[in-house]
Amino acid sequence: MARKIKRILVIKLSALGDFVLALAAMRKIREAHPDARITLLTTPPFEALARLCPYVDEVEADGRPEGFREWMALIGRLRRGRYDRVYDLQTSSRSSLMYLGFWPFPPQWSGIAMGCSHPHRNPERDHMHTLERQADQLKAAGIWPDAPIEPGMAPPPDVSWVLDKAKPDTATSPKPYVMLIPGGSAHRPEKRWPAELYAELAQALHGRGFDILIIGGPQETPLARVIQRRTPQARDLTGHTDFARIAALGARAALVVGNDTGPLHLAAAAGAPTIVLFSNASDPALAAPRGHVAVLRSPDLADMPVAQVLQAARALAPSPVDA
Q1: Are 90 and 13 in contact (CB under 8 A)?
Q2: Separation in Å, CA 160 to CA 47, 163, 317
Q3: What does the pLDDT look like over 234-250, one tens digit per residue?
Q4: Would you kindly state where each structural domain of the chain is located, as residue ranges?
Q5: Domain 7-157: assigned CATH number
Q6: What is the pLDDT of residue 319?
Q7: Which CATH number fits domain 162-316: 3.20.20.150, 3.40.50.10260, 3.40.50.2000, 1.20.1260.10?
């Protein structure tokens, strides 16, 4: 008789967009093990959002120890957790090294660690979209036998549960609003549509009757200033939104427009009609958000005209002025 799975560890460390996409797999893990106690091992940026998540019972946020002593402390604590099964959704060399830390008596393990009990051996895994790849991993683990693994078929994540726990938001008005997300990783400027083009877009959308909200971290406030020079009425929320608030704002937005960055993934998962802008720096076939989403792509985002984005916006979000 197979041992009953009572204690589960899920590993998902980063980054935000990948974390959001992995919520679809976490939901399936919860459905497959409704009575198990599930612990999520992640990192500090995602701890608050993870604690709202109904798919896990406990959150540990020290998944990236910086030194040897911290690493050994983490391994010791994981061993004491006496997990029956581990779902490694990070599937990196770091997370696979954790598997070795359990020897000589490792738990059942779903991932790519050499020698693990439920390996994901698909040779095409690195060429699959995150949603299909993780669906296929759970199929190999035996908990999703009819997992949809054809391109574009796996269901997107759903973060509607955030709305039940988020505080009421005072940043919005009864008027329909568009969220602009002009930032992204500082070390990947080639993934950003120029702020001046966002400014032109904001002016056009405001003229169509939308309020404009600008979302990002505090380091992206200068981008908001560029936009506000063209549209002074735009509301600068850079540095004032945690992940739960971004999801709550996205759920009520008439439209979200942004670069391929984590907050946009979160807003799209909340159900927002979304336009995501891709350069050749990343491949939408591997990691684009899913849902009510239009993907626009240009080898160099500086060459993407505002008119193209406005055309997509008209298709996704009818103007309040025309309504």
Answers
A1: yes
A2: 18, 6, 20
A3: 999 999 999 989 999 99
A4: 7-157, 162-316
A5: 3.40.50.2000
A6: 80
A7: 3.40.50.2000
